[in-house]
Amino acid sequence: EVDGLGGSVQVFREGGEPRSVEHPLTPGAILWAMMFGCAIAHPSSMMRRSLMERLTHDGVVYSPEFTVAEDYHFWLRALPDSKLANLPEVLVQYRKHDANISGEAGASGVAVQLGNQVVCATIEKMLEREVSHEAVCAIRQPQLVSCVADAKLGIELVTELESAVCAMAWLEAGERESIAENATARIGELTMNAMGINAAEAQPLMLSWMQRGDGAKSLLSNILA
């Protein structure tokens, strides 16, 4: 049983080729993916009444503070107590045009900032401790990491999140392996970015990443190929 359900979306723009946007299907994979981006296409979603009631406060479902990230905020508030899933089928056709809220000037940057805020709150709830803004930014925008120290914070947070999510008793067979594989890739990206900033300072991060086993070695081989 799940509390919320979404599906794939076909996005199209007039004069352009449509493309399908797919998301993870199972609750464990979605819980993990939601730490890095919204893994439920809100227009395609349906949910139990009990979930809607739980997330409604004083008659308000969506916080006005999160105008361009209200769906992401909504689903993150459901975690980790609720199970979410996706169907592989396309349930919604979404037309992109200049009047979309997400297309407004500056909306993308605002959405990223708000997303970082709500992810930080969710992670703090899951880990039961304070989490730094720098660490959250590092795991969600690794390409913007500007110092080895922030890369290290991001790597530590990914590792801790991996342990917390994989400890969920209800994870399905194979989910832990796929989460570990994705965590290895994310740690690798942060490690390589850190190496590009200061190779000597980042060397311990590289050595630690390589200890994650064949997955890290395979990724490194692909990068160097």
Descriptive notes:
- The protein has 225 residues and is an alpha+beta fold.
- Helices cover 52% and strands 12% of the residues.
- It has nine helices and four strands; from the N terminus they run ββαβααβαααααα.
- The protein has helices at 27-33, 49-54, 70-78, 107-127, 133-140, 148-166, 175-197, 199-210, 214-224, and strands at residues 4-12, 19-21, 46-47, 84-95.
- Strands 1, 2, 3 and 4 form a four-stranded mixed β-sheet that branches.
- The chain is globular.
- Mean pLDDT is 87; it is low at 103-107.
List keywords for this structure.
alpha+beta; 52% helix; four-stranded mixed sheet; 225 residues; 4 strands
How is the topology of this model organized?
Elements: E1 4-12, E2 19-21, H1 27-33, E3 46-47, H2 49-54, H3 70-78, E4 84-95, H4 107-127, H5 133-140, H6 148-166, H7 175-197, H8 199-210, H9 214-224
Parallel strand pairs: 1-4
Antiparallel strand pairs: 1-2, 1-3
Helix pairs in contact: 3-4, 4-5, 5-6, 6-7, 7-8, 7-9
Task: Output the structural class.
Answer: alpha+beta
First-residue to last-residue Cα separation: 44 Å
Cα-atom radius of gyration: 18 Å
The topology string of helices and strands comes to EEHEHHEHHHHHH
| Integer average pLDDT | 87
- Strand proportion, as a percent range, falls in 5-15%
The amount of helix comes to 40-55%
* Total count of helical runs of at least 4 residues: 9
Largest sheet composition: 4 strands, mixed
Q: How many E-type strands?
A: 4
Q: What shape does the CA trace take?
A: globular
Low-confidence stretches: 103-107
In short:
With 225 residues, the protein is of the alpha+beta class.
